[in-house]
Amino acid sequence: MRNSPRIMKHLTAEDLLATLRWRYATKQFDATRKIPADVWDALEESLVLTPSSFGLQPWKFLVIRDPAVRARLQSESWNQPQTTEASHFVVLTARTDVTPSDINAWINRMAEAQGKSPDELAPLKGMIAGFAETMSHEARHAWNMRQVYIALGQLMTAAATLGIDTCPMEGISSAAYDRILGLENSGYATAVACALGYRAEGDKYAATPKARFERKAVVAYV
Ligand SMILES: Cc1cc2nc3c(=O)[nH]c(=O)nc-3n(C[C@H](O)[C@H](O)[C@H](O)COP(=O)(O)O)c2cc1C
Question: Hey, whose CA ends up nearest to atom 9 of ligand 1?
Fold first, then answer.
């Protein structure tokens, strides 16, 4: 818990960097290896725990278990084999809008979690609604998509700390995914996908040197 005495061991800075350098976008997964249930459970929870703007959590994460559905998705993913070879495959979807009923649901949930009455949270509710109203429908969808990418980042990093490989995937046809997954007119739309599992021994990308701009090109001090 956040405010109880520290009972967990934090990673060292060195371990953190080793973990982040160990992670790479895995192209070839070992199709014979499955993520154990307890590890998968923690990764699902990492999605649930993702922070979002105002806490709105404008998303649904679809864990695609049906091999036939995964095969159909692969053909809408530039035929990328990660879609079917990885142990697990998640489609991260975003709410296509932020409506008063979304805001209500969140305020009620927050009140419940914090032992308050929804009335106490009325000022916050008004602020969120005011903020959402300044945007067009498209802008609200785009806002939600940005929140979903935070979940993607959290999932990948959480996975790496547990020794699980991932491949984030934007090389997918979102419209076809929506059709296959029955999302059309559901209020949710595909944003991005993520394959998770264990790297195959022969995946040459594991040995490809990490290529990043130098720190001084991307970090500035003001
Ligand atoms: C949002 C996003 C979408 C991506 N889509 C794909 C994809 O569809 N297929 C793929 O093989 N890699 C995909 N990648 C992986 C990137 O190419 C990779 O992260 C980048 O080249 C950096 O390499 P590294 O992750 O191995 O360090 C994606 C990465 C991100 C963050």
Answer: 169
- Tell me the CA–centroid distance for residue 23 and ligand 1, in Å: 11
Give the atom of ligand 1 at the shortest distance from the alpha carbon of 205.
26
Task: Supply the CATH classification number for the domain 27-97+146-201.
Answer: 3.40.109.10
Q: Whose CA is nearest to atom 18 of ligand 1?
A: 25
**CA–CA dist 182, 189 (Å, integer):** 10
- Residue 8's pLDDT is what? 81
Residue holding tokens 């959590």?
57
- Residue 189 has phi, psi (to 5 degrees) of -140, 150
- Ordered by start, the domain boundaries in the chain are 27-97+146-201
Q: Read off the tokens for 97.
A: 């809008």
pTM: 0.97
How confident is the model over 143-197, as pLDDT tens digits?
A: 999 999 999 999 999 999 999 999 999 999 999 999 999 999 999 999 999 999 9
